[in-house]
């Protein structure tokens, strides 16, 4: 093969390779993967920066929560420094830091309400239905030097399949965004704190009682831990329990008691000027010596309670064969309960309060109505006196 032929073959090979490359590019399936976008709040992407958060403010029209970090942990300023669950704080800070793929939305003030990112206190736009708007929350995070790390109006949530996104707008900016990620901003105290007040299982309970300011009381009890049911004490002559299990509700009332809200006990008047209880006082006693007292008071339709735990050594000693916990454990339990509840007034849920304030009459079958007087009875029918002038009976 001479030099001219070799050169011709090489040129053909180059052409073939070039054509193949072009065809390969044409036939390649384009990638559908969306490019990764930067975090909307990159300042919260660092765990070190998140750990520097010292104040979290949640403002809505008509409510405000201020979470502060101190030597004893996170507390709720508007509730007298009641302890806040640290995981709830982390959810907010980390949730902001994990928002991704932000898509720009409206910058028009009149459209903010449709996605829930209008300024706090804004008046509804006339003629706009604002369907789906839930109202904004102004979420502000500050560091230990009180510098603002992030401040954002959090609006409505949007779902596309299993993907959750949230509408938001950085405070002071016109541009709103739809960002992928989960950011649930609490609306109630119960979303920020441990809701359990106290828990006393039925198996341990020996007696439960409620004494009312007028001197009336209701008591249910059983003799031994093995007894299957509780009985009602001091049932009046001629009366009977409303049902065979009437005593159970009061006996099991402390199996689970949760709060709906909380404030310092000093803000609630649990006693009258003369030192007597202003409301019902409930007491639950176990076979192993635990005594839990609920002192309650009504404020309108709300029922607040302050709780005190104690150890009754005489009760535990008398029933030692049936005790479910050793005395040392019960004493530690008392200390733990008091450390948690001392100094606080708990708002009891409306569905739970009636049980904690049980009256004896609630446990008994209603009285049989007496027969009508003879003057109003007839054979086969009831005779009623005819009204006279002015509506008075003749």
Secondary structure blueprint with pairings:
Layout (H helix, E strand, L loop, with lengths): L2 H25 L19 H5 L1 E8 L2 E8 L2 E4 L5 E2 L2 H12 L2 E5 L7 H4 L21 E7 L4 E13 L2 E8 L5 E5 L15 E3 L6 E7 L5 E5 L9 E2 L15 H4 L5 E2 L2 E4 L16 E6 L3 E10 L2 E10 L1 H6 L8 H15 L2 E5 L4 H4 L3 H4 L31
Annotation, overall tally of beta strands? 19
Order of helices and strands: HHEEEEHEHEEEEEEEEHEEEEEHHEHH
Number of structurally distinct domains: 2
Question: Which stretches are low in confidence, meaning pLDDT under 50 for 5 or more residues running?
Answer: 3-17, 19-36, 127-133
If you average the pLDDT, what whole number results? Answer: 86
Binned, the helix content reads 10-25%
Describe this structure in words.
By secondary structure, the chain is of the alpha+beta class. It has two domains: 42-187, no CATH class; 196-363, no CATH class. It is built from nine helices and 19 strands. β8 and β9 form a beta hairpin. The protein starts with a helix and ends in a 31-residue tail after the last helix.
């Amino acid at each position: 093969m001479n030099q001219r032929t070799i050169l011709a073959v090489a040129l053909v090979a180059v052409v073939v390779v070039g054509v193949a490359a072009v065809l390969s590019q044409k036939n390649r399936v384009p990638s559908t993967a969306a490019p990764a976008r930067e975090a909307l709040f990159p300042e919260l992407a660092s765990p070190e920066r998140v750990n520097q958060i010292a104040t979290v403010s949640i403002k809505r029209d008509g409510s405000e929560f201020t979470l502060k970090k101190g030597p004893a942990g996170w507390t709720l300023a508007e509730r007298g420094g009641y302890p806040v669950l640290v995981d709830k704080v982390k959810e907010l800070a980390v949730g902001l830091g994990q928002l991704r793929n932000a898509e720009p939305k409206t910058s028009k003030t009149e459209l903010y309400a449709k996605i829930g990112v209008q300024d706090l206190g804004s008046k509804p736009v006339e003629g706009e239905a604002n369907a789906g708007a839930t109202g904004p929350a102004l979420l502000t995070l500050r560091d230990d030097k009180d510098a603002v790390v992030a401040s954002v109006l959090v609006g409505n949530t949007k779902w596309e399949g299993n993907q959750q996104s949230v509408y938001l707008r950085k405070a002071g900016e016109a541009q709103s965004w739809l960002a992928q990620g989960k950011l649930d901003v609490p609306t109630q105290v119960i979303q920020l704190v441990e809701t359990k007040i106290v828990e006393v299982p039925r198996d341990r309970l020996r007696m439960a009682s409620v004494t009312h300011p007028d001197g009336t009381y209701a008591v249910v009890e059983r003799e031994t831990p093995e007894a299957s049911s509780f009985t009602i004490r001091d049932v009046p002559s001629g009366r009977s329990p409303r049902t065979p299990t009437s005593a159970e509700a009061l006996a099991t009332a402390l199996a689970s008691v949760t709060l709906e809200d909380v404030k310092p006990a000093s803000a609630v008047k649990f006693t009258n000027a003369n030192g007597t209880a202003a409301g019902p006082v409930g007491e639950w006693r176990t076979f192993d010596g635990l005594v839990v007292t609920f002192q309650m008071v009504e404020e309108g339709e709300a029922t607040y309670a302050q709780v005190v735990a104690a150890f009754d050594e005489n009760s535990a000693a008398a029933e030692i064969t049936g005790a479910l916990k050793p005395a040392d454990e019960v004493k530690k339990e008392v200390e733990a309960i008091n450390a948690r509840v001392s100094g606080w007034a708990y708002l009891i849920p409306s569905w739970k309060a009636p049980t904690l304030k049980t009256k004896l009459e609630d446990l008994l079958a209603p009285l049989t109505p007496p027969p009508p007087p003879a003057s109003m009875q007839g054979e086969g029918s009831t005779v009623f006196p005819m009204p006279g002038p002015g509506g008075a009976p003749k």
